[in-house]
Amino acid sequence: MGHLDHAAFGWLTPVLSYGMACIGAALGLRCTVRALGSTGRSRRNWLVTAASAIGTGIWTMHFVAMLGFGVGGTGIRYDVPLTVLSLLVAMLVVCAGVFAVGYGRDRTRALLLGGLTTGLGVASMHYLGMAAVRLHGDVTYDPVLVAVSVVIAVVAATAALWAALNIESPVAVTLASLVMGAAVSSMHYTGMLAVDVRVTPSGAALPGATAMQFVFPLAVGLGSYLFLTSAFVALSPTTGERAASASAQQSAERAARRRPARTV
Q1: 264 domain residue, yes or no
Q2: Ramachandran area for residue 137 (φ above 0: left; ψ -120 to 50: alpha; else beta)
Q3: How many CB atoms lie within 10 A of CB 35?
């Protein structure tokens, strides 16, 4: 059996991956809060942004953590189409969960359905990402730890969506995103503890791309997207601010109309 190393670069990859999960969760929660205060096309756009942020944050967290994954006695490569598919699954399933909450009439049922859908999506993304790993040997999983990781994913997703429905203050959203980031990281490393590799030494070339050739540039690109979108959301006025601004403008116009015209 090969020796598994989950932190080949020390604390760098776990801390970085946790940070990415928190940023994605914080941005997703802020966008969901904005969506619930909007209607029509604006609500839909905020929900799509929320889903892309959460999905991107979770995927980037997984693959930044995977940069620190190594197996003694074999190199590691990644199947490019499967890796991209895991990103699309993360975004699409999270989108379905977020829309269930954003448009659900019965909040409790919408929350449970959205949490289950999103959690299963997170787990699917993780194990699809693991299926993309190519190495010299056979990968097996401990079914109990796999089940625990799926439960953690569903509970974390449900808690995050509950926070989006019930929390509006920036401080509370920040705290909720830190908890969500910790839950997503816990799910990832529980899933990784389920992994066992029986190495078959071979000099044959492995198919696929190395982490630095493909995963690292993609993670940097998605991380940049999260930072830029966070800046945009932080700078854009909330529904309340827009309403206050419109109200102030109307008051000024009414005051101007009541003011008598000056005679020359």
Answers
A1: no
A2: left
A3: 25
pTM of the model: 0.78
Query: What's the Cα-to-Cα distance from 33 to each of 2, 28, 99, 233, 247, rounded to whole Å?
Result: 46, 9, 13, 11, 22
Query: b/e for 87-118, b at 16 or more Cβ within 10 A?
Result: bebbbebbbebbbbbbebeeeeebbbbbbbbb
Give the rounded percent of residues in the chain with a pLDDT score beyond 90.
7
User: Tokens 């969901």, residue?
Assistant: 32
Domain span including residue 136? 4-257
Residue that wins the pLDDT comparison between 76 and 250: 76
Residues 126 and 231: their CA atoms lie apart, in Å, by 28
Number of domains in the chain: 1
145 CB contacts (<8 Å, ≥6 apart)? 190, 191, 193, 194
Q: Does residue 201 sit within a domain?
A: yes
Quote the mean pLDDT of the chain.
Answer: 81
* Percentage, residues of the chain above pLDDT 70: 86
Quick one: 56 exposed, middle or buried, by C-beta within 10 A (0-12, 13-18, 19+)? buried
Would you put residue 208 in left (φ > 0), alpha (ψ -120 to 50) or beta? left
Per the structure block, which two tokens stand in for 220? 């940097």
Helix/strand/coil for 31: helix
Burial (Cβ within 10 Å: 0-12, 13-18, ≥19) of residue 17 = buried
pLDDT at 200 over 80: yes
Per-residue model confidence (pLDDT) at position 135? 86
Q: Is residue 59 part of a domain?
A: yes
